[in-house]
Amino acid sequence: MGVKPWVEVVRLHPDVESGSLDMSTFALDLGALVSKDPNVSPTYRDPYSFFKATYLTEDMRKLIKEVYDRLCGKEGNRVLQLRSPFGGGKSHTLATLYYAVKNRKEMEKAIPETKDLLPELKDVRIAVFDGEKFDAVAGTVVDGLNIKTLWGIIAYQLGSYDLIKEQDQKRVAPGGELIKKIVSDKPTLIILDEVSRYLERAMGEKVGESTLYRQAMEFLQTLTTEVAGSKFACMVYSLQASAREFFGNIEVLETLDHLTSRVDAKREPIKGDDIFFVIRKRLLAEPPDEQVAIKVAELYIDLLKRNIFAYVSSEEERRELEEQLIKDRERFVMAYPFHPLLIDLMRERWASIHDFQRTRGVLRFLAVVLRTLKERKVRDILISATDIPIDDSEVKHAFFTEVGQREPFQAVLEADLIGPNATVKRIDERLFKDRGEPARKVATAILMYSFGGLPTAEGEVSASGVSEEELMEVVISPYLDSTTSRAVLKELVAKCLYIHYDGSRYAFKTIPNINKVLEDEVEVIKDEIVELEIEKILERELSGKPALIWPNQSKNIPDEEPRFLIAFLPLSFAYQNDSEKEKIAKEFLTHYGDKPRNYKNGIALAIPDKTQISPLKQAIRYLLAIERIKNKKKK
């Protein structure tokens, strides 16, 4: 094809390729970063390294400039809320603002194009509050001083603690005049991260007739009013994107949301396809060769055209598909070395999973996938949902850390995907030998789509799984066309024990499908029951014919009248050696018990074929199992 495998084109970031990467590296702890905790990853602890590993999206650049303008006294929104539908990036964006204001020179050295972006700014006061860390009951100790509240720690960092020391120690929110003095007329940046976590913990803490939660909310509302009316102050805070992310506590979510309702200042630092660049910046040592990315994009778009257009039924659909493919071409270039649908899968479907960490989760998972595939020296030109090496223990661990259900899915993986006698292995060996393991690829893609769902118009989440049309877009590659993929899909549904098809979507589930129920029923049917069933079938089929079923001795074959008779010998006859077979056959043909047979030329022996007995017994087992299952259909 004239296109190199991605492993020969892409250089991984050193901490991704090293193999010693701690997955907590991707969990940015803003409080620890600000306090210069030595346990923070060097990538985040050092401002220059931080900016080298950070992709500044267009919205992040605008946000930095907006904050600078407010600190310089320019008019505009002074209370800014960070939200992101694809989450991720909120804590990272707050850290970016912190470093951009506190360590501007390091930012300009790492990202030279920011030199002309911002106005000059000196002597900025910065206060950072990390609600994940701050204890609602005990507070925190700084320089021997026990600071007890959100307002206390902010005032302390701004050098104004003495103004509200009493209110902090008594845990009573200060009034507007005091907060105005704290904000003062100096450039002041207040950053609040995970404040909702702190507020939830504060709900149960009594303060006189009130609660710490009510006092904290009173403070936040007053603070936003004073900051909004100030000359040089700016406040930026993060908020979970949904009640689901905040454990369903809608009251806190809505109250915090309304803090900015008066100034309409909600910001999304990472939008749409920005995530492609964020991922590449963090996981790769340098941007990949764009010419290679363009070649790969054109190849895939051409493959999609040739494989999907055949199933388009109208000219209008064809035009829509062509327009979509034009957009997709650019997305392939931006996402390289990843298939864009792999990233879409995570940010759109996995993001609906309660514990999924969004951008952080994507980075953790893809880091392990990249390293594992590179170590295996794979020859693929792109990484798609078909290529996830789920048989690798580290990848499997990272995958189930993000999507959950690790233990329940172990049986699924062993039976259908990675076990020594897994269904996909048998299908590939039997039907697609030396053809690139298409069953494994398609099954892996279905597994990836078996978690999470898409948001619906009603605000719910659709069922997990993938339609055939969606699946074709995912699996089509230089190694797998739509015809083979559909044949593979048919085999997987027929043979896999845990794939479910509801009429529109395919998904792996921990509940066995009818194939598994059938296999379990087959296992308990004993051999003697099978032989009895075969005998009954033969008797039924040969009823009224000159036939005798499974005689055990010569006396079982009649000799009273001259008529032709076929004796069907027992299955056990096939397992005798040749001399024993001859002895038994002669005995049946020449004797009737202990007497010579009168009508020797009236008998024929039907001898069972040894090679057919095992398949016959297996077929009968399945027929018996099916009948048993039908009788248990209510169960």
Write structural notes for this entry:
By secondary structure, this protein is of the alpha/beta class. Helix 6 (58-71) crosses helix 7, helix 7 crosses helix 8 and helix 22 packs antiparallel against helix 23. The chain is built from 29 helices and 16 strands. Helix content is 49%, strand content 9%. The two termini are 54 Å apart. A five-stranded parallel sheet has the order 2-5-8-1-9, with helices on both faces.
Layout of helices and strands:
Blueprint: H1 6-9, H2 14-17, H3 30-34, H4 42-45, H5 47-52, H6 58-71, E1 79-82, H7 90-102, H8 104-110, E2 125-130, E3 140-142, E4 145-147, H9 150-157, H10 165-170, H11 176-183, E5 188-193, H12 195-202, E6 206-207, E7 210-211, H13 212-228, E8 233-238, H14 250-257, E9 266-267, H15 274-283, H16 290-308, H17 315-335, H18 340-349, H19 359-375, H20 393-403, H21 410-418, H22 423-431, H23 438-448, H24 468-475, H25 482-495, E10 499-501, E11 506-508, H26 514-523, H27 527-541, E12 547-549, E13 565-568, H28 578-590, E14 591-592, E15 595-596, E16 603-606, H29 610-631
Parallel strand pairs: 1-8, 1-9, 2-5, 5-8, 12-13, 13-16
Antiparallel strand pairs: 3-4, 6-7, 10-11, 14-15
Helix pairs in contact: 6-7, 7-8, 11-13, 12-13, 15-19, 16-17, 19-20, 22-23, 23-25, 26-29, 27-29
